[in-house]
Amino acid sequence: MGRRRVGKAFGEMLRMVWARPVTVKYPFEPAKVAGRFRGKLDIDPAKCTGCGVCKNSCPAGVIEMVKIGTRKVGDREIENRRPVFDLYTCISCGQCVDDCRFGALKLTGDFELAVFDKESLVMKKALKIVE
């Protein structure tokens, strides 16, 4: 009975000698991500209106609306707010992307979020005032 087990293992070893490797040579070659991969969040400041829907829909609470000034609408002064994203605690669920009516948010294929300073993962890209 011991011979049969050795025979099966030997056949498998021979089959694997000619099989192609399954491993990926990352980071020496770029990694390929699936089409529906949900990676790092990105924003287009030109499309963002500061409505705050993304903040209200975020289940992880990683979006903070920051006041960047005021704007005049009619005879009233309205606070102009923009989102700041803490990508360190973002769970990449995509809820904010789905709820953004203006198409300002998207999930990219970027998955390399390992950094030495987690403050570098706070995305303040939307704070730039776009005319």
Structure report:
- This protein has 131 residues and is α+β, with helices and mostly antiparallel strands.
- It has 3 helices and 5 strands.
- The chain is elongated and about 85 Å long.
Walk me through the topology.
Blueprint: H1 2-17, E1 41-43, H2 53-57, E2 63-73, E3 76-86, H3 95-99, E4 105-107, E5 122-123
In short, what is this structure?
The protein has 131 residues and is α+β, with helices and mostly antiparallel strands. The protein contains three helices and five strands; from the N terminus they run αβαββαββ.
Strand content: 15-25%
Number of domains: 1
State the secondary-structure class: alpha+beta
SSE sequence, one letter per element: HEHEEHEE
CATH architecture descriptor: 2-Layer Sandwich
Number of helices: 3
Strand order of the largest sheet: 2-3-5
How far from one another are the termini? 80 Å
Low-pLDDT windows of residues: none
Using DSSP, what is the number of strands?
Answer: 5
Q: Roughly how much helix do the residues carry, as a percent range?
A: 10-25%
Classify the fold: give the CATH topology: Alpha-Beta Plaits
CATH class: Alpha Beta
Largest sheet: 3 strands, antiparallel
CA gyration radius, whole angstroms: 24 Å
The backbone outline, from C-alpha atoms, is elongated
